[in-house]
Amino acid sequence: MNQNKKILALVGGISKGSINQKLFKAMQEIAPHDYQLEQFDLSQIPFFSQDLEVDPPGLVNQLKEKIKEAHAILFITPEYNRSFPGVFKNAIDWASRPYGQSAWVGKRAGVMGASVGNIGTFGAQHHLRQVLAYLDMKVMGQPEFYLNASHAFDDQGKLMDVKIKELMINYWKSFDRFIYE
Predict the structure, then answer these.
(1) Cα–Cα distance measured from residue 33 to residue 1, given in angstroms and rounded to the nearest whole number
(2) Structure confidence by residue, pLDDT tens digits, 102-156
(3) What residues does each domain of the chain span?
(4) β-bridge mates for residue 10, sequence order
(5) pTM across the whole model
(6) Is the peptide bond before 46 cis (omega within 30 degrees of 0)?
(7) Do 125 and 139 contact (CB within 8 A), yes or no?
(8) At the top level of CATH, which class does the domain 5-179 belong to?
(9) What DSSP string describes 15-83?
């Protein structure tokens, strides 16, 4: 196995107590020992403006560097109105510009998410996958991971459900094979 596999996690839940942040922490805890799962905070990136794309703000340059350094990207998304959150769209737009200089091209990606709804984040993930495909990313198709997290975490944010943990371990195994196929 390769050493120091860098996975960049982008988490669309930026609110205090976000269940997607809890999902990220749980994924980080069970990540294979040779993985480095690092999150980039999307909450401070300014709104995209074509006026600034040639000389973007420092955080945007940092994001693009992290994307380029990563072996793969793990998108962890909540669902808002059957779509992914605006912080994702903003980060996606910044890192894809200027035209012809996208940091996303050819990157492998996984998509997962949690909500308290019965269908997890199906709508958000489906919409996000469409955008990532357009950006020429290679997105893992199976297994899909839609978590109804209404009873998955305790008050401290620790994952309590053993079956969910097993699904997450299997997701890691599949993601590992997908990244290096």
Answers:
(1) 11
(2) 999 999 999 999 999 888 899 999 999 999 999 999 999 999 999 999 889 998 9
(3) 5-179
(4) 75
(5) 0.95
(6) no
(7) no
(8) alpha beta
(9) STT-HHHHHHHHHHHHS-TTEEEEE---TTPPPP-GGGTTS--HHHHHHHHHHHH-SEEEEE---BTTB
